[in-house]
Amino acid sequence: MEKVEKKKQSSTTVLQSEKLIVQFGGFKAINEFSFQLSDRELHFIIGPNGAGKTTFLDVLCGKTKPTSGNVLFKESIELGKLYEYQIVRKGVGRKFQAPSIFPSLSVMSNLEIAMKQQKGFWHILRAKLSEGDKEHIHEMLTLIGLKEESNRTAGTLAHGQKQWLEIAMVLMQDPELVLLDEPIAG
Ligand SMILES: Nc1ncnc2c1ncn2[C@@H]1O[C@H](COP(=O)(O)OP(=O)(O)OP(=O)(O)O)[C@@H](O)[C@H]1O
Ligand SMILES: [Mg+2]
To answer: Tens digit of pLDDT for each residue in 9-32?
Structure first.
């Protein structure tokens, strides 16, 4: 597994792993992987099937715990010690390898749910969106090219449109770090 650096601007370290190891039984899915990501950088992690890319993202979002080593978020937060929901609240958003939208709801409802998740439980119970919320959703629909499809059932979208919708759902949560697992797959 190797990393390809695409853009570099400033020096705050957003992510840092040092000799990270993840072992499943006797098998090392990640073997001493060191990685660094600075503020406003875009990195691609490439490698063949089974190289450990998804496993690395699983560690970053708390789904899998490191066997040895850890990953620091914003220089002091040890992601390997937090639960998934805590990591989301710290500002890490993830798009999974297969689209995980709500297929029976409209495109608009999917974005509303994503927005309300970010605002918390009491906001979910409140039926109405503010004008600012609606504007934010419309901006997002324009950004992902789904403005004309806002009332369409999400499950009927083309695969690529579902991928965009899920990326938008991650962005609605206003994350500081966005993880995309094979966003153009399929
Ligand atoms: N929970 C698990 N238990 C056992 N082995 C696992 C587990 N998760 C992943 N693996 C193994 O770890 C290795 C790395 O898998 P991973 O899914 O991270 O690879 P990847 O680089 O994302 O591959 P792909 O390009 O196919 O998505 C694979 O051999 C996989 O079978
Ligand atoms: Mg993968």
So the answer is: 457 899 999 999 999 999 999 999
Q: Exposed e or buried b for every residue in 121-130, given b needs 16+ CB within 10 A?
A: eeeeeeeebe
Provide the residue type at 67 as one letter.
T
Ligand 1: list residues with CB < 6 Å.
24, 29, 47, 49-55
Task: Delineate the domains of the chain, giving CATH numbers in brackets.
Answer: 2-89 (3.40.50.300), 107-180 (no CATH)
Query: Measuring CA to CA, how many Å separate 7 from each of 12, 32, 43, 63, 170?
Result: 14, 24, 8, 28, 22
pLDDT at 25: 93
Q: Which of 147, 81, 85, 165 is nearest to 117 (CA)?
A: 85
Nearest CA to ligand 1 atom 9: 55
